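User: Batch of two.

Assistant: Item 1 of 2:
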Amino acid sequence: MTMRIAIVNDNKGHLLMLSRILEKCSTHEIIWIAYDGREAVEKCRLDKPDIILMDLVMPKMNGVMATREIMAQSPCAILLVTASVAGNASLIFEAMGAGALDVVKTPIFGDRDEERDTDAILGKIRIVQNLIAPGKPLRSDNSLAENNNVHVETRKPILCFGASTGGPAALATILSQLPVDFPIPVVIIQHVDEYFSASFADWLNKQCQLTVQIARHGDRPEVGKVLIAGTSNHMLMDSQQRLVYADSNEESNYKPSVNVFFNSLVKHWDDCIIACLLTGMGRDGATGLLNIRNKGGYTITQSKDSCAVYGMPKAADDIDASMHSITPEEMPSFIMEFLNHNKQMAERL
């Protein structure tokens, strides 16, 4: 399958570098180039590519505004490719909230990270290529509901989120409404490049009263903390209820994968699981959400009209994995109501 790719960048050196990278792949075709966001919006309206490599800081219209306009008029996959990382975290995650798929560094010729940054771009393009290809039917794995491997007593429910395109804005909206004394641990799987995960955690930490940080290998979920997957490997829960980074036999376009994490919770978390699948391209998280529901968990998807991309939630809704389809603004009250109801039921026993 040939990928039709557009580049939006006002730096001629960066344009040359990106063009050379793409020209090495016979399945990649550059269909147009734009030198600012405004030009990109117009060109995308006339000829929509499979993916846009979008710079962040540009004249006339920056990458945030261009992303927002394109997703409203001619939605397609947008990958932020920027050399302007320092001091621009808020712009990066604002653009991702508006619908950008992910963010990578612009490769610089001769730089020590040139090979790593080049591989990151090509890897993200492969993910989009897999996402827009015809997919396999989704199904639940009922065997995951058998929970015989737990060796640590779980004392509280856990709240977990899976998100991709548009996720940062949705997560900021939800977490900002959770109280400082929120009574259960929170864990997030957001599709974001490892290089930017720490900046994402710092940015999100400023949006809420809870402490947001990258999960370290071996961490356990804690009340008062929001732990975020922070590497380009899968994060999952082990039999000791620790968060670990590891490979997985499960098929997935993404690392970290929402499905891999959700399914590990089904195996190893013996109290209630509250799982929310938010906006995102593709189908990651859908079968994991269904497995959580089948185990007796409380499952929520982001409603279609509130999604930047109604891909992951739609895949879950299509297989009846969700108990509620609601907006990010509504989720905190639904979650608190569920926790209060469970507390009252426990007090009666």
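Item 2 of 2:
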Amino acid sequence: MFAFIIKRTAQAMVVMLIISLIGFAIKQSVGDPIREITGISVSAQEREALKEKLGLNDPFPVQWLRFVGKALQGDLGNSFYFKRPALQVILSKAPATLELVFSTSVLVILLSIPIGIYAAVKPTTWLARFFMGASIVGVSIPVFLTAILLIYVFSVGLGWLPSYGRGETVEIFSGWQTGYLTVDGLKHLILPSIALSSIMLPLFIRLIRAEMKEVLETEYIKYARAKGLKSSRILFVHAFKNTLLPVITVGGVQLGTLIAFTILTETVFQWKGMGAMFIESVERADTSLMVAYLVFVGFIFVLVNTLVDLIYGLVNPMVRISGRK
């Protein structure tokens, strides 16, 4: 276990270095943050002096190495627009995004497991065919189009649910605002969660169905049926447990993708989270905040995938994460 942690830590550092390097390469072509900060009334000499003060005139390798050195100390730089540490800005927006991602994940888990198992056990029924057909449609429609359609039907047409914002929130501790504790906050959460789940739900339904169909054809399942075990025990204890490894693998990767896809969902629903913050940072040429966001999301990817590898050993003891036989 210790060797595995050391190995993954080293891999994570390499990945983070590559992400920061890519972020800095993008940073050079986004725009001039000094122009966005100062406006048109400031002279060229003052702009040049500010550039020099912020270190933007330094060569690319110098800027990157300086960022890496500070990042190792937990400093991801200062936002040009907000005039405060970029990590503080990101963490202030993180609760909204994590709340949305958590709600979406719960929705995907609660729906994909029973639907996937049902479609595998009774593939010829009309309901199973409907679910599989709907999953194809769900995969094919972009998330922003799904979001607009939901707003048109449930907000504009029926007037049942709000179409933008987080609604009423409550501070549970310093800086962490949540909408889970208010009725208005929960109402505002419904449409964004459904829209965001449209990306992952069809994928997991089809994945669970395919894995379950394969497992149900194995010899030990046939033996369990011959022993007269209950169908529910065969499905959920023996069969479903052996479909979890590929599901967890895909789930770990898709969780990071889900955080990235909140950019579109938050933009449509004006959900003030990290995704909307990133779009605003691009519009304002706040390159420091952009790079900090990319590094932060990259760190989440690495952390989630490391946790997925650790969970392997709990789901299936035959899997040895350390690589020993």
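The longest strand covers residues 170-173.
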